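Format is sequence with structure; example below:
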Amino acid sequence: MEPAAARLELLALSGVPLVRPGDDLAPIVLQALRLSGRSLEPGDVLVVAQKIVSKSEDRYVELAAVEPSPKAMELAEVTGKDPALLEVILRESRDVVRVRNDVLIVEHRLGFVLANAGVDASNVGEQGRVLLLPADPDASCRALREKLRGATGTDVGVVINDSWGRAWRLGTIGTALGVSGLPALVDLRGVPDLFGRALRSTEVAVADELAAAASLIMGQAGEGHPLVLARGFPYPGREGRGAHLLRPKSLDLFR
């Protein structure tokens, strides 16, 4: 007998307004669910674009108010980037990993290794203004999850995703910044394969996989779909964190 087919459903929710500082995302999610003709079910996962989380948390910085440091001025000579922007990036970073013309790879203060510390001007609106990553993406996920559970009585998972580049491949891909209510990393070491051989090193970044899948229908430009409802996520709910996906520096062979 053939096993039942696995199915994962992704739906970009409708009617999401432009988010402003101080907005509560939970009512926005609930309204989008109503407009989309859906309600939350146990096991659902809500994937939320980083931009609307950062906007609601007022993570804006006005570049005109930033005084570049000598280090920022030095990096501007190499990268060709705005010294004020570079100063914002440095303030969000623990370490500078790589520098090239128009490229700055850093270790973010939260441990992420990415371009420009996630500081971004796209889909921000006003010129001269940039947006930072959420101060604590895992905490933001937990807070939204708790509000949704309080409003609906249904416990769901929440992932905050963002689009990042990758060291060895071209193109950006959706990546999980914050996680609550689902595993971020699933350890399959010791699990037998089809032929009974135990897996020795397989750990699956399931939150990243879901974040990437949701990005396909969120879009990257002006699509305006920052909320995606995922149904059929195949791993049991438990309290994972985005921080679980970070490779310890001691195990990083390239730094």
In short: The radius of gyration is 19 Å. The first strand starts at residue 9 and ends at 12.
